[in-house]
Automatic annotation (TrEMBL):
Cofactor(s), by name: pyridoxal 5'-phosphate
Pathway linked to the protein: One-carbon metabolism; tetrahydrofolate interconversion
Class in the EC hierarchy, top level: transferase
First and last residue of the signal peptide: none
Protein name: Serine hydroxymethyltransferase
Length: 433
């Protein structure tokens, strides 16, 4: 059997280029990370060849004795990594990713057109929490369920729990979703539990962004208050791309979550599990119980604080004023520039982050902020010192963007950006690659 170099040099060449890009750039996208060689070995193994519809011991195909062993090990490690008792909590490790995991929960516990409330996307929530615009139901969640998003208090940048409570009392959702893609603070789980109980709803936390921080106990524990917790596995947790759903074993609101969720995953929405991913996830979850992993997560948070405090020193406005976790959200509107241009300019200098809407934004395509995360570069050994320097680099990019706006206006800006992309541009020697 031929290896990739010989069998397909085209794909090999693309992989090599991507590897070099990952290696050379400052990776600051808050949802990305560098998984370990051990995880990648498991993901690239023969486990990908096997069909295993069903759960351990209850499969629709033969030859699953080792896959059963693997999935059971992965489930045990998942519960241990999040400090959960096997009598109180169960877990399904088959979801293909975060969005499918969330949709599986909704179809497990809701009927079509039941009401849900999640954090609005322009205020930091995720598409799969029910995003819709006044014109269009954008996500499948808002097409199949009735969504009424809650929002931040724009004056503090924190979730407006009072408004959530008032709206929930009127809207009477069956499910309230905590969790976000761009929220630099912890959720107030006790408050959300109180609101949820008062209206007779389920409380779910989508901890995708912070699951590594939860496993290491460096942020508040959602399991103390929630009925269901979903996560991706490839962000701060640093595993392969995938998803998990944790559920309470005792019935909640008369629903047996274990069978409802397991059936929603298969046969409800998925077929054969991705056993290679489950193998990689098991490896990741072993590591997630180590002292080294806890130290890493502590460093992720310290690095983010160092970044935030240097940005504040440099005069930037941060949504909520700072960060308790792995990301900061910078509001660039006071500087008269937008996040889209800053993202582009920094990309040219191999600094990878993303434009992000900030509360009060008018446009999602040209939003007023940038999101900066610390997990990936912390994996590569960066400490507070390097993250302070990163704040200074970002500041340089912002200054260039401001200068560009002063130098040229309207359609001329495109020309200027072309110049920035050309080899003559002095910021970096890498743009001509
Ligand atoms: N939930 C949250 C909070 C996320 O931030 C994301 C992705 O960024 C997802 C779910 C979706 O995960 P996936 O891209 O794996 O579907």
């Amino acid at each position: 059997d031929r290896g990739l170099n010989e069998a397909d040099p085209d794909v090999r060449a693309i992989i090599n280029k991507e590897k070099e890009r990952q290696f050379k750039s400052l990776e600051l996208i808050a949802s990305e990370n560098f998984t370990s060689r051990a995880v990648m070995e498991a993901v690239g193994s023969c486990l990908t060849n096997k069909y295993s519809e069903g759960l351990p011991g209850k499969r629709y195909y033969g030859g699953n004795e080792y896959i059963d062993e693997l999935e059971t090990l992965c489930q045990k490690r998942a519960l241990a990594a999040f400090h959960l008792g096997e009598n109180e909590w169960g877990v399904n490790v088959q979801p293909l990713s975060g969005s499918p995991a969330n949709f599986e929960v909704y179809t497990a516990i809701l009927n079509p057109h039941d009401r849900i409330m999640g954090l609005d996307l322009p205020h930091g929530g995720h598409l799969s929490h029910g995003f819709m615009t006044p014109k269009r139901r954008v996500s499948g969640t808002s097409i199949y369920f009735e969504s009424m998003p809650y929002r931040l208090d724009e004056s503090t940048g924190l979730v407006d729990y009072d408004m959530l409570e008032k709206t929930a009392t009127l809207f009477r959702p069956k499910l309230i979703i905590a969790g976000a893609s761009a929220y630099p603070r912890d959720f107030d789980y006790p408050r959300m539990r109180k609101i949820t109980d008062a209206v007779g709803a389920f409380l779910m936390m989508d901890m995708a962004h912070i699951s590594g921080l939860v496993a290491a106990s460096v942020v508040a524990d959602p399991f103390e208050y929630c009925d269901i917790v979903t996560t991706t596995t490839h962000k701060s947790l640093r595993g392969p791309r995938g998803g998990m759903i944790f559920f309470k074993k005792d019935p909640v609101l008369g629903v047996d979550l274990e069978s409802a969720i397991n059936n929603a995953v298969f046969p409800g929405l998925q077929g054969g599990p991705h056993n290679h991913t489950i193998g990689g996830l098991a490896v990741c979850l072993k590591h997630a119980q180590s002292p080294e992993f806890k130290a890493y997560q502590n460093q992720v948070v310290s690095n983010c604080r160092a970044l935030a405090s240097r940005l504040v020193e440099l005069g930037y406005t941060l949504v909520s004023g700072g960060s308790d976790n792995h990301l900061v959200l910078v509001d660039l509107r006071p500087l008269g520039i937008d996040g889209a241009r800053v993202e582009k300019i920094l990309d040219m200098a191999s600094i990878t982050l993303n434009k992000n809407s900030v509360p009060g934004d008018k446009s999602a395509l040209v939003p007023g902020g940038i999101r900066i995360g610390s997990p990936a570069m912390t994996t590569r050994g960066f400490t507070e010192r390097e993250f302070t320097a990163i704040a200074d680099f970002i500041h340089e990019g912002v200054k260039i963007t401001i200068d560009a706006k002063g130098l040229v206006s309207g359609s001329k800006l495109q020309e200027f950006l072309k110049f920035v992309a050309s080899p003559d541009f002095p910021l970096t020697d890498k743009v001509s690659d």
